[in-house]
Amino acid sequence: MLNENGLPQHLREVTHEANVTVEEDGESKNKKPDYAFRIGTELLFYLETKKPAVDITSDILPAFQLRRYGWSGNLKISVLTNFTDLYIYDCSVRPVEDDDIGVALIAHYNYTEYVEKFNEIYGMLSKEAVITGEFEKKFALLLGPYRREPFDEYFLKQIKEWRLVFGNSIMKNNPSININTLNIVVQRILNRIIFLRICEDRSFEDYETLKHVMNDNK
Asked: Residue 2 and residue 13: Cα distance in Å, rounded?
């Protein structure tokens, strides 16, 4: 992508191969959506592009891949295309690998409709739609069919589960520890793990640093 204004990476309106952390096989893994669209520092949606030979009208994996990116990034929507077809998905609905392509689908356009429905598509995805507030208005009240669980809520549930795991482990190995000290220790561990994951996601640290340390100490 050209960067004629010389903007730093985090301020570019379109970035190629963005970074997002997703859960895969019970582990957090770093993935790279094809494009990320922003206004200022606000990430609006991901665009995942496939070759025309990939039939996104029947193959469920591209839709799952895109929705997982968008949901993990806590985005309202994201877009999938193979240039023949264009799909817009509601990313507040938690994706499941065997979901049909129609799950959380907001809109679908075939290339034969691009000219006729240009204004409709432009009104949803353009920079002007964001600036005028149309983007927010259109997607603020999305009503997903089921499994509506924003990533923030899911993450908070995970934090609560991790607190219990760490707390039980620490108490098992330190039975005399008092509750106040236990809470402080657990919170410090969580804070440091989350901080490390943020650093990894932004390429300040190597990916899965903590996992490698753990494996080396086995």
From this structure: 11
